[in-house]
Write a structure and sequence with these properties.
single chain; 531 residues; alpha/beta; TIM Barrel; 11-stranded mixed beta sheet; 8 helices; globular
Length: 531
């Protein structure tokens, strides 16, 4: 950004074990209280305001009301995306359809092109923000826990519908989630969906996880028992006694279904119910659907006739940039608001890949994912729509189930920089960050890739701001002794006018970007873009 510099004057900084923290974000927890595991599976999310790249602002408690404890949001979470992709595309890296089409827009007409992977190999529809990671990368799993918990997601529903259960993945996720909770963080609960060989698959999960009582604190309960989305007719008496069971319903027939839950459906979506056909229990909300535009029948995402991210009002929106807005996703959420069931299942997260099918020389077939438009993952991507769908998720979860109120700021107070840190005891709110975010990453990705990140330095614990008629004071507390100053070290960005259209991404000032001699630092004012 273009900056003007002044040595800090009139901006007092309280120091505790570490100095200033760069960013506060939605990942911060509630005021004055340590985050904790949701009670009975209910997760209220966090209240903080945010604005996405399109200028859409998150609704706050005044607009959507306080948390409703009778409403729950589940996220269809995929354990499989690193399966079948351990092959490199020409030039290195896994096969990525969006990149293939960017290099050759006519690639679909050339099924034998070396740009495509072999038949049966899984290919990415786009590049994840965290790279082409393996599903058991603990560095990534920790960030999934934070993003989804902060969004207000109550439970992850693992996709084990193809008779594979992936215990090496879900047990590592449970380990990481439990670690986050021990550190005071919040995570969603867990449940499973089975379909092919439903009874046998459910039994495998039961005997591996539930019967021995592993990670009991993470189990999601529905009507007093752990939830398993499994056809009750396929379940053994033992499973029927232990679980609340619901069948997984495929969108081949589009009717309201008793004791069965949808994972995908066209707008206006049918719903699952229990005893009263007029009382919805569950409705699905998906980003896009491999269902035909004209009649809602199942098709392939690569056929060109599916309902992509830009589909709404019965047609595919072909305006430039339409994929960024999530029109299909929003239309599906509108149906959930009309039905107001107790449970909304969202599709989905971590669904980055789909197998390439078809015959040699024949048309290329991708069933569940294809490219940026014809895919249904909410997790942020590198490039493209970025994190727009994540913020859209947060906004709609709040509209569906409410959000905590923003904590009130304490009265003005003058802080003596040389005084005791006890001066800060009654300053509110206190923004509590997740712990462990500075842990290094050193883990294999797919297709022979390896990811290394050792940039984490100061693990922020809490942050406060005080003010009087003249000065603003900032307090930061780190988990361990502060590291020595260095490049990109402990920045503080300040939006002083609440105007996101000026400054850099709305931030007008930065502290600590430039370090002076003798322990001095600079307060710099933005005069344009980042430079």
């Amino acid at each position: 950004m273009k900056l003007t510099q002044n040595i800090v004057k009139g901006l007092a900084m309280g120091l505790v074990a570490g100095v200033l923290q760069v960013q506060t974000s939605l990942a911060l927890e509630g005021a004055g209280a340590s985050p904790s595991a949701p009670e009975s599976g209910h997760n209220p999310g966090v209240p903080w305001p945010a604005t996405d790249a399109l200028g859409r602002q998150l609704p706050l408690e005044a607009q959507v009301g306080p948390p409703r404890r009778d409403r729950f949001v589940g996220m269809f979470y995929f354990l499989t995306h690193s399966e079948g992709v351990d092959m490199r595309a020409p030039g290195g890296g896994p096969y990525d359809v969006s990149k293939i089409l960017a290099r050759d827009p006519d690639a679909l007409k050339h099924p034998d092109s070396p740009r495509w992977g072999p038949i049966g190999v899984s290919e990415y529809w786009g590049e994840p923000l965290y790279g082409y990671y393996r599903s058991d990368d603990p560095w990534v799993l920790r960030r999934h826990a934070q993003l989804l918990a902060d969004a207000g997601v109550d439970v992850l529903i693992f996709d084990t519908t193809n008779a594979r259960t992936y215990p090496e993945i879900y047990l590592e996720l449970c380990r990481v989630f439990s670690e986050v909770r021990r550190e005071g963080g919040r995570t969603p609960q867990i449940a499973f969906m089975v379909h092919t060989q439903a009874g046998e698959t459910a039994a495998k999960i039961y005997h591996r996880l539930y019967q021995p009582g592993l990670y009991r604190a993470l189990w999601f309960y529905w009507h007093g028992k752990p939830l398993m989305i499994c056809d009750p007719k396929a379940a053994s008496p033992e499973l029927k006694r232990f679980f609340t069971l619901r069948a997984a319903h495929w969108p081949f027939t589009l009717t309201n279904t008793p004791y069965a839950w949808y994972w995908e459906a066209p707008y206006p979506q049918p719903y699952g119910y229990t005893e009263n056909p007029k009382q919805p229990e569950e409705v699905n909300v998906s980003v896009a659907q491999n269902l035909r535009r004209r009649d809602g029948k199942v098709t392939n995402m690569s056929n060109g006739d599916a309902r992509g991210r830009s589909f709404h009002d019965g047609r595919e929106d072909r305006a430039a940039g339409a994929v960024n807005f999530g029109y299909n996703f929003q239309e599906q959420w509108q149906r959930a608001f009309e039905l107001h069931p107790p449970f909304v299942m969202v599709t989905g997260w971590n669904e980055w890949t789909a197998g390439r099918w078809g015959k040699p020389g024949g048309p290329i077939v991708f069933v569940d994912q294809f490219d940026e438009e014809f895919s249904r993952d909410i997790e942020p991507m590198r490039g493209g729509h970025g994190d727009n769908y994540y913020w859209q998720l947060v906004a709609n979860v709040r509209r569906f189930k409410g959000v905590p109120a923003l904590p009130e700021a304490s009265a003005p107070k003058t802080i003596r920089i040389a005084g005791s840190f006890h001066q800060w005891d009654d300053v509110a709110p206190e923004f509590c960050d997740y712990l462990g975010e500075t842990a290094s990453r050193n883990f294999d990705g797919v297709a022979g890739l390896h990811y290394i990140n050792h940039t984490g330095r100061n693990d922020l614990v809490a942050f406060k701001v005080a003010r009087d008629s003249k000065d603003v004071y900032f307090y930061a507390r780190t988990r361990r002794a502060m590291t020595p100053p260095g490049t990109n070290w402990m920045w503080l960005l300040i939006d002083s006018d609440h105007d996101s259209t000026n400054g850099w991404e709305g931030y007008d000032f930065i502290v600590n970007r430039t370090l002076g001699p003798g322990g001095k630092t600079w307060l710099e004012r933005n005069e344009g873009n980042w430079h």
